[in-house]
Amino acid sequence: MTYQDTLARWQQADLPADLAAELKQLSPAEQEDAFYQNLPFGTAGMRGQMGVGTNRINVVMVALVTEALAAYIDQSGDAAKKAGVVIAFDSRHHSKEFARVASRVLSAHGIKVYRFSSLRPTPELSFSVRHLKAFAGIMITASHNPKQDNGYKVYGADGGQMIPEAVQAVIDGMAAVENEFAIVQDETEANVQVVDDDLDNAYLAEVKTISVDRDLIQKEGADLKFVYTPLHGTGQYIGEKALQQAGFTNYTIVKEQAELDGDFPTVKKPNPEDPAALSLAIEYAKKEEADLVVATDPDADRMGAAVRLADGSYQVLSGNQIAGLMVNYLLAAKKKNQTLPENGAIVTSIVSSRFASEIAKSYGVATLDVLTGFKYIAAMIDRFEEKKDYTYLFGFEESFGYLVKPFAHDKDAIQALVLFAEMAAYYKEKGQSFADGLKKLYEQHGYFEEKTVAFDFPGVNGHEEMAALMTKFRNQKLETVGDQLVLATQDFASQRQIDRAGAEKKLPQPKANVLKYWLADGSWIALRPSGTEPKLKLYMGVVADSQAEADAKLQNFETMMKEKIKA
């Protein structure tokens, strides 16, 4: 079936007024882009631009993917239908509407639905699936994406994102739907139960256990001054409750960014990875001479931070720096309290810094590397619980995602918010700043620096162009990057590592379209197409004896790799 055939069906359908009006305004090129494919559904669900068409997210596509999920639950039996599905949503345009469509499609199948009446963070949705022993969860969010996007994330019974077999079942179910405009919705919502306070309280009770040193908070928490911004999203309601129950009350909310607004009017991107997203909060902090700034993205699964320097300016920390500081604080506290297990482990992604790994190693704690995507960290937690070979202590990704305790099985900015504030109190008690603590860790373990560069591949041919580029790198053996020899190449698609001598080793991670190069000086470079956006990501990590040397290395590698990618 061509995109013109699909377009014609949509033109003849009884669409909602807003979609019908938009469809009439599309140019021929826009029609092709809107209908040349179904918005891809993967292990992270589907995410994309809101609007009319099969390559957009709208009420029709939400109904279609939910119908496929419902068919999968039907096939799993009555117990699965009774266990049900938890649904939450964020502050984006149409999020509440999409959540209601999903709940009505599920209810029409006789599937139990637990739906929040107002917006909640992604980590609370993950927790709620586990707490209610539900079969699945749906989170309507595009996380940190721009305002024009929305998304549909699906979670399994463990609170982690869906396993590949379940994803394939949903993909097959979507293909099996003959008429997406005839999907039945239960307008009475007979099988829908609204859940709010009970789950909030249960989640907050678990968050309360995050604190490592309550005496420290009692001594320093009142004096610690910081600024918090939820970036127009879900974090404020639960985040403030979490901070206050931990004992932190001397903070200021960025008023303009506390307003729930899917246009995110105060930022270009509501992403704490982007230093510009913290600009307004830093202005607040300068006026108040606050010790730090913390920010959560719209669905509160990512946290960013900036810390005050001696001259009164503020340094925006990278996700890897935040993770390194957290790992050091957690492990030092556990060692002091004599609660550090002999088989402790942290879990991180193959494109995250080695900084936290070196810190963990100094405490006798192992690091296990998984593929990018927090579902793989969740799967490793499940493995630990089953095999008892390791005790989970911390998980993180370089993209500002952290999980302290696994009562949620996805990255959790609310947990991170509490731990980061406690860590600030720790340094304040020592008469130090975060910058002092970070410098000391660099002096002990080396100066680690990382950078991610994204190359856009939009449009109909974008995925083919990315695939061709990955094939080019696989076919031409990379011998050097800058002045550094490539000691080993890891191809996660073939699950093989090949060193300079030609010796091969099987990689333990599942297959994935990622290439990683290990260099002679301990630095590394990786290439990976994004799973949620039409982007090819270049990851680089260096280690050196000084900050200046690390910065120079990183710049050199970036220049060389850009030349190779664009050649």
TrEMBL record:
Enzyme class name: isomerase
| Boundaries of every Alpha-D-phosphohexomutase C-terminal domain copy | 504-550
Q: In what residue span(s) does the Alpha-D-phosphohexomutase alpha/beta/alpha domain sit? A: 41-178, 203-306, 319-443
Any idea which UniProt keywords this protein has?
Carbohydrate metabolism, Glucose metabolism, Isomerase, Magnesium, Metal-binding, Phosphoprotein
Its recorded reaction(s) are:
alpha-D-glucose 1-phosphate = alpha-D-glucose 6-phosphate
Entry's transmembrane regions: none
Sequence similarity = Belongs to the phosphohexose mutase family.
Could you tell me which Gene3D superfamilies the record lists for this protein?
Answer: Alpha-D-Glucose-1,6-Bisphosphate, subunit A, domain 3, Alpha-D-phosphohexomutase, C-terminal domain
Top-rank lineage group of the source organism? Bacteria
Required cofactor(s): Mg(2+)
Q: Cite the CDD domains for this sequence.
A: PGM2
Q: Which GO terms describe its molecular function?
A: phosphoglucomutase activity
Enzyme Commission number, as recorded: 5.4.2.2
What name appears for this protein in its UniProt entry?
A: phosphoglucomutase (alpha-D-glucose-1,6-bisphosphate-dependent)
